[in-house]
Amino acid sequence: TPGSDWRNYVTRENLRKQQQLWDESRRLYGDKSRFNENNRPAAMSYEIAPDELAGQYTDSHGTAIAVEKIRELKDKPFFLAMGYRRPHLPFNAPKKYFDQYPLEDIELPDNMFDSKGSSPFAGMNSFELRAYSDIPEEGPAVGTELKAKQLLRAYYASVAYVDDLIGQLLDELENQGIRDKTIIVLFGDHGFKLGEHDEWGKHTNFEIDVRSPLIISVPCQEKGHTTDALVEFVDIYPTLVELCGLPIPDHLEGKSLIPVLENENTDHREFAISRYPRDENILGHSIKLDDYRYTQWVDQKSGEIVGQELFDHQVDPDENANVANQKKHADLVKHCRMLIKEKLETIEEGR
After folding, report:
1. Which residues contact 182 (CB under 8 A, 6 or more apart)?
2. Could you tell me where the beta strands, DSSP code E, fall in the chain?
3. How far, in Å, are 233, 236, 258, 342 from residue 263 at the CA level?
């Protein structure tokens, strides 16, 4: 069935290619194949679908269901969560969204090179992208400027597609007369590299991967404000609880964002933390401060710090040069290590 696989191809070419890859894997490896129904070998890394097939994408189908739910629930309090696949790989979208981004207008990032001086654990070799049939398993993942621009265009098309779908939900709130009494939170689960640091994908502790979109719309509050306050996704729940006039449970790690919503200059956290492993034994702990990002890579067996990065966002927002080993930053590195240690101890105590 078109769209049944989680990668959600809808064109005959990609559906046929996907099935061929799946059959070949089973023929070669049988039950020992590393692929299963939820992790098939993949066809193309992007797909330009005829506009008339848009309804076969799960994102379009899910939006239609969400619109019906809004109509069904409009006369009573409700909580509605809608998850979208786009712009996750593969970058599949209807043709009209590709048409918004002519290939000749696509510009490549200006830091398509390794982050200077970073530890060997910092990168990820674009392994997620390499699962696709048009991407080599070894060597440069994207070897030509043309291929890079094609992927960027497909990513932009995927974003435009999901933006349109979210707009349909907002339009329905307007149509039902409940837009001005509905709290809306839009967020993504991670960032993404599109050639930056010569990589494609997520799976690192670089700022570009762990920084995510977060937009909150609250009735009766002035729109269009932005903030540089450091926040975490654990802050969303207590924010919603307080906005709904409910008591905030004492055990929550998150902090309500209402002070930030009321004044964008409010300081919310000293740092935000994220973690991502490099293999079964190496774990990266990363914290974002106002002007810096620090990451330490820890051997889980010995507890030894086997790599570290410090990036000065005041002069290097794209994290192109690791300055962790510069003497002038020694006290800051020490402070960051202490913050991580204390945070991990707090997490462990809360279990």
Report:
1. 173, 219
2. 46-49, 91-94, 184-187, 193-194, 200-201, 214-217, 272-277, 282-288, 292-299, 305-312
3. 19, 17, 9, 29
Separation between Cα atoms, residue 350 and residue 192, nearest integer Å: 31
Is residue 23 classed exposed, middle or buried when 0-12, 13-18 and 19+ CB atoms within 10 A define those classes? exposed
Q: Residue 85, SS3?
A: coil
**pLDDT tens digits, 176-219:** 999 999 999 999 999 999 999 999 999 999 999 999 999 999 99
Rounded Cα gap, residues 114 and 321, in angstroms: 9
Q: Distance between CA atoms of 303 and 310, rounded to whole angstroms? A: 20
Q: Which of 210, 190, 18, 197 is closest to 87 using CA atoms?
A: 190
**Residues in contact with 168: Cβ distance below 8 Å, sequence separation at least 6, in sequence order:** 63, 67
Q: What is the pLDDT of residues 281-338, one digit of tens each?
A: 999 999 999 999 999 999 999 999 999 999 999 999 999 999 999 999 999 999 999 9
Neighbours of 174 (CB within 10 A): 11
The amino acid at 7? R
Residue 9 structure tokens:
């191809």
pTM: 0.92
Q: Checking DSSP bridges between strand 282-288 and strand 91-94, what pairing results, if any?
A: unpaired
CB atoms under 10 Å from CB of 317, counted, come to 13
Site of tokens 């997620």: 128
Q: pLDDT tens-digit profile of 293-303? A: 999 999 999 99
